[in-house]
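Hey forum,

I'm writing up a methods section and want to include a predicted complex as supplementary material. The small molecule is flavin-adenine dinucleotide. I've pasted the protein sequence and the SMILES. Can someone with a working setup run it? I'll credit the forum in the acknowledgements.
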Amino acid sequence: METTVLVVGAGGCGLTASIFLSTLGIDHLLIEQRPEPARLPKAHYLNHRTMEIFRQHGIAEDFYAVGAPLEKFGKVCWQTTLAGKGPFDGRVLYEMDAFGGGELRESWSVASPVSATNLPQIRSEPLLRGIAEQRAPGRVRYGHELLDWVEESGHIVATVRDAQGDTTTVAAKYLVAADGGRTVVPKLGIRLEGWPSFHHVTTVHFSADLSRWQRDGALLTYFINPKRPELSGSTLVEMGPTWGRFSEEWGLHFTTGPDDPARTQREAVLARIRDTLGIEDLRIRLHKVSNWSVDAVNAQHYRSGRVLLAGDAAHKMPPAAGLGLNTAVQDAHNLAWKIAAVESGWAGMDLLDTYELERRPIGRRHLDWAVGIIANAELVSETAIGLTPQVPTWMRPTFFSNYFADSARGRTARARAGEVFGTHRIDCQALDIELGGVYEKGALVPDGTSAPEPEPMGDIHVPTSRPGHRLPHVWVEQDGTRRSTLDLVSPHGFTVIHGPGGAAWAGAARRAADRIGVPLTVTSPTTETSGAGWAHRLGIGDEGVLLVRPDQYVAWRHTGAPADPEAELARVLDRITFR
Ligand SMILES: Cc1cc2nc3c(=O)[nH]c(=O)nc-3n(C[C@H](O)[C@H](O)[C@H](O)COP(=O)(O)OP(=O)(O)OC[C@H]3O[C@@H](n4cnc5c(N)ncnc54)[C@H](O)[C@@H]3O)c2cc1C
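Reply by user p_vandermeer:
Happy to help. Structure tokens for the complex are below, copy them as they are.
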């Protein structure tokens, strides 16, 4: 058979690539070797940028309908155990607002029109599958494995094996490798830079009723065990489908050595869960135990001819700040409009080179960030309350007793620990990591300004309309409807947003777009609902203009009125479409 894009792998990356290509009217085939979506809970946090993208493609509400609402997951918590009879059992050591919840709500809602949500991959993949199948009937095929391919005469010719063992040939113009790095990267021999398999984790997925002991609102509960240091560092994650303490399913992640029986033996796994939670007789239904290694690697190239790597195929990172899946979705978003632009004839093939130019530094940024979080996790576990490796087990009760004491000494212990726990904001309050990824080179025209200096802890996001940044969110009114500036951006082409005094841009933009032959819409919201002038908040002033790409990134800006706006825009459009 023939198709325009062969997408290999129906994880979060491949499924979203399929959905975005469908929105853009690009014929494609998505193949997945497994007979059905994954049964591993894996990633669960869908961050603000991902939800903005889902909103643009009309699927955000599907996720909010079943995902955890912010009040049920906007906190992380450190506890000794959930229950138990010891004097320090079931005690909360520290908790902090997370992911835009609690006190973060106001400042984070200024930055984005959406909130994040939480939905583990066992639930998000079937949801994405349903949407992908609905938007591309018959083009999402499970039980189909890519065996091999060759690139010849400007085409990919792929050999695909179906569930019956029969092989067929698929001819495509592009191959999007969203295969988690399993098949395509090894065959291409692309080098992975970084640290492979540097950390081993066991993830246990189970059902249990924890409602008597668990409190509402904490997506992640980290344990620091009063008696047994080997139980510290384990993390309990809510898996739904009901959210909060009535969650039916849970995930427990813990670090294991190669000989740890809790990696393989059912009884040892059950004991590990009960001991960590401090509930001796807890009834548990075990679904799955997976032992996996954490990688921090970035592919040296994201493009090889007509093959484009996305998601875990391009970069693998520790499961911190939920960056793995979110970065994968954002790769798909970046790639889909570029393939659509080239295929629709309004951009040259070189536009595809900007995919690597833009996304590879982001892959590096996110994996470095996730590695930093893993390093910090040591600090915010036992060490936060003074339990350094030199402290013998017999001394542990003293530390817990001091920590909880209603005395000056206890207050100092808690205040000191609070400062240490506070560094965990690099994981759960990293708004700038979610929204502030910048493209310095790519399908954009720099304006000579410098990017705002990023806040080193990643928790303060400074919006800017500088080219290469995500368009800042501002609430505006358009045709009597309250909309985010992000809602003004069409996924089908460029969007020109001009200030209230910049009407000259409108006609000039349309003429330039017609001349060059690119789809472009022009908008200038009329009524201000956001207090200060929206155009000033966007950084363009009354007479300025922004040229925004289909993926809501700013391609170019001009803050005044040039002598010949049409010529200026034509020059810019020509440059960023590589024709
Ligand atoms: C146990 C586990 C727990 C994790 N927990 C977290 C977490 O808590 N937070 C987080 O952010 N990240 C986590 N991750 C990482 C996160 O799940 C990934 O970053 C994310 O799933 C990447 O999505 P993807 O679509 O790129 O790749 P994948 O989800 O790996 O999907 C790749 C797909 O390609 C298919 N495939 C491979 N080869 C072929 C072929 N030849 N033909 C057809 N299909 C093929 C595979 O079957 C698979 O379905 C975890 C990963 C694992 C393994």
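Some notes you might quote in the supplement: The two ends are 30 Å apart (CA to CA). The chain has 17 helices and 25 strands.
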